[in-house]
TrEMBL record:
<dbReference type="GO" id="GO:0006508">
    <property type="term" value="P:proteolysis"/>
</dbReference>
<keyword id="KW-0645">Protease</keyword>
<feature type="binding site">
    <location>
        <position position="401"/>
    </location>
    <ligand>
        <name>Zn(2+)</name>
    </ligand>
</feature>
<keyword id="KW-0378">Hydrolase</keyword>
<dbReference type="GO" id="GO:0004177">
    <property type="term" value="F:aminopeptidase activity"/>
</dbReference>
<dbReference type="GO" id="GO:0008270">
    <property type="term" value="F:zinc ion binding"/>
</dbReference>
<dbReference type="Pfam" id="PF02127">
    <property type="entry name" value="Peptidase_M18"/>
</dbReference>
<feature type="binding site">
    <location>
        <position position="82"/>
    </location>
    <ligand>
        <name>Zn(2+)</name>
    </ligand>
</feature>
<dbReference type="GO" id="GO:0005737">
    <property type="term" value="C:cytoplasm"/>
</dbReference>
<dbReference type="InterPro" id="IPR022984">
    <property type="entry name" value="M18_aminopeptidase_2"/>
</dbReference>
<dbReference type="InterPro" id="IPR001948">
    <property type="entry name" value="Peptidase_M18"/>
</dbReference>
<protein>
    <recommendedName>
        <fullName>Probable M18 family aminopeptidase 2</fullName>
        <ecNumber>3.4.11.-</ecNumber>
    </recommendedName>
</protein>
<keyword id="KW-0862">Zinc</keyword>
<dbReference type="GO" id="GO:0008237">
    <property type="term" value="F:metallopeptidase activity"/>
</dbReference>
<comment type="similarity">
    <text>Belongs to the peptidase M18 family.</text>
</comment>
<dbReference type="InterPro" id="IPR023358">
    <property type="entry name" value="Peptidase_M18_dom2"/>
</dbReference>
<keyword id="KW-0031">Aminopeptidase</keyword>
Amino acid sequence: MREALNQGLIDFLKASPTPFHATATMARRLEAAGYQRLDERESWNTVPGGRYYVTRNDSSIIAIRLGKHSPLLNGLRMVGAHTDSPCLRVKPQPELQRQGFFQLGVEVYGGALLAPWFDRDLSLAGRVTFRRDGKVESQLIDFRLPIAVVPNLAIHLNREANQGWAINAQTELPPVLAQVAGDERVDFRALLTEQLAREHGLNADVVLDYELSFYDTQSAAVIGLNGDFIAGARLDNLLSCYAGLQALLDAEGDESCVLVCTDHEEIGSSSACGADGPMLEQVLQRLIPEGDEYVRSIQRSLLVSADNAHGVHPNYAEKHDANHGPKLNAGPVIKVNSNQRYATNSETAGFFRHLCMAVEVPVQSFVVRSDMGCGSTIGPITASHLGVRTVDIGLPTFAMHSIRELAGSQDLAHLVKVLGAFYASSELP
């Protein structure tokens, strides 16, 4: 089972270079499992026992399995994660031609570690909006092949490189895509038109706009002398999206279950399709009668907010509180912060710990050092919007927000197992 889950994650990461592709990949798996797509612009006719999913902006998705028991009696079992990761996004007018090279101007999305982006084989993917036969359409594209690189400056020309230097995102990050001769000019939108035809057989009149990101073409892999690790891009937080989806598809039971994977967490979640937006609340209000019954159902519900945790790094162990250094391959981590950067409380932490014990999954705790700032995630945001009890958890990883992150190869199976137990639980605290 562990090997199959790890390979499934590797395949999922390869198919999901952007939040748009991750959402489309999850939607295909849900449809294959009998889930029906609901259109937010139309009226819904849902029934007990039904399986449904909703997308917004093509980059956020909510899957719902309505149970035989009303949420008014036993609440909703919700798992939350996010589809986005730090990356380099292409600017609206990106063409740069300098010293005979064609480059694209980029903007840094989220809190990316920039140094690892140098000297990687990069490709480009995302959503393109275009006009065809007088109508405006959108389509996902993925060049797949390595078409770009951000070359480093040689140590001979930057003797201070190993003493640390501030990377200038404006001048040092534009990837190189090609050499150009003389006065030859490259039209990026024309390249996208060609890609639409090549990948989808679409003859666009004109590309109107796009949301495109560079990504590393190196596949995720199980690595290490004993295969102890999974290395790959976008583990934060597609690892949790995959685990939540797998648990939902595998789980059995009579209760109502929800998986919510939203975009824009890395930049604060404030968008129409982010956790700080109205999407989840609006979807739930259409499934549960408003007013008294809605509030009562939410108060009987629980959200497991799943986002990666900082594993204790052997080279930087001093960055952790000595009693709260989560280890790779030692199970999911309960994340606690008294200032509500995480939404965990003793009741929700206790219930999650109880679930782990019941299915024999190891569990750990993380509290940031008292002299360091603490990151956050969708847990506190969703809890404050819905008023739902929440526990923030995640799998320990290294190199969070790097172009290539590292997790334990045993931990995915641990997380899927405990999330499956959560979805199947007959009682919530």
